[in-house]
Amino acid sequence: MCLWREPDSPGRASPIGYDAAMDKPGITHFGFRDVPEGDKARLVGEVFSSVARRYDIMNDLMSFGVHRLWKRHFAATSGVRAGDRVLDLAGGTGDIAALLLPRIGDAGSIVVGDINGDMLAVGRDRMADRGHVRGLSWVRMDAEALPFPDRSFDCVTMAFGLRNVTHKERALADIHRVLKIGGRALVLEFSAVRAPWLRPLYDFHSFSVLPRIGRLVAGDEASYRYLAESIRKHPDQGTLKTMMEDAGFDRVDVRNLSAGIVAIHRGYRT
Fold it and tell me: Is 233 within 8 Å of 27 (Cβ atoms)?
């Protein structure tokens, strides 16, 4: 069941669901606002440039630290092994790269890609401060047009980034393109809560608590209101599974974490 909310009625479930703006040529969503497609990347960039320095602190406050458990589980079940070449999209502050680095060993490599230069700078500096330089590359890139040849990577990961992409189907198709035969894509993203009792609590936290935390801690209420809205506009588990299959992935499976607050989607290139 979808949890999407219409912008003028955040307390009422919307039957429209994912990407209602798709019916309007040249229009997409930025949170609950309909905007020209060409404006979304800039608007999302402004959000993440604003929150980059306090991104991890805010994640701890917003999720009560549970995001760290989600990411550890994501890495632990990734199947990444010694010698693998990994592309970590929306890699931002380096959380996923830090967890995967011990798994690839000296023979492996991780390319951390993000469309936002400020997020990349935070992650690169943090990892360098920890002495993690070898095997890491940091590249500013657009997930819809990856600057790599076909069949370049054993695994592509994307954690909490797909919902911010303007054309998700293009990103998924390009992720499929750059995977080696037998390679896998792993998407960790907020999804549709499955437990009915949890939905009102989750909505209250998202629309009432989270923006206030953003204002008090990061001095930016609007960006965190957008992040809450972007979750509701993201495709639910079944819809994203179908989108991955349409992009060419085989054996797509879904694993819900925390009653579906987040989900891991995995698909293979065969």
Answer: no
Tokens (6 digits) for 226? 């957008």
Name the DSSP letter for residue 270: -
Residues 169-211 pLDDT 10s: 999 999 999 999 999 999 999 999 999 999 999 999 999 998 8
Number of domains in the chain: 1
Tokens of 46: 């402004």
C-alpha–C-alpha distance, residues 31 and 33, integer Å: 6
Angle at 162 between CA 244 and CA 128, to 5 degrees: 125
CA dist 191 and 119 (Å) reads 23
136 touches 110 (CB < 8 A): yes
Query: Do the beta carbons of residue 93 and residue 65 sit within 8 Å?
Result: no
**What is this structure's pTM?**
0.86
**Residue 23 located in a structural domain:** no
Domain extent, residue 213, equals 37-268
Closest CA to 82 of 109, 122, 45: 109
Does residue 14 belong to any structural domain of this protein?
no
Strands 250-257 and 179-190: unpaired
The CATH number that applies at residue 170 is: 3.40.50.150
Q: Which residue has the higher pLDDT, 23 or 221?
A: 221
Single out the residue of 182, 185, 173, 183 nearest to residue 248, CA to CA. Answer: 173
Strand partners, 227: none
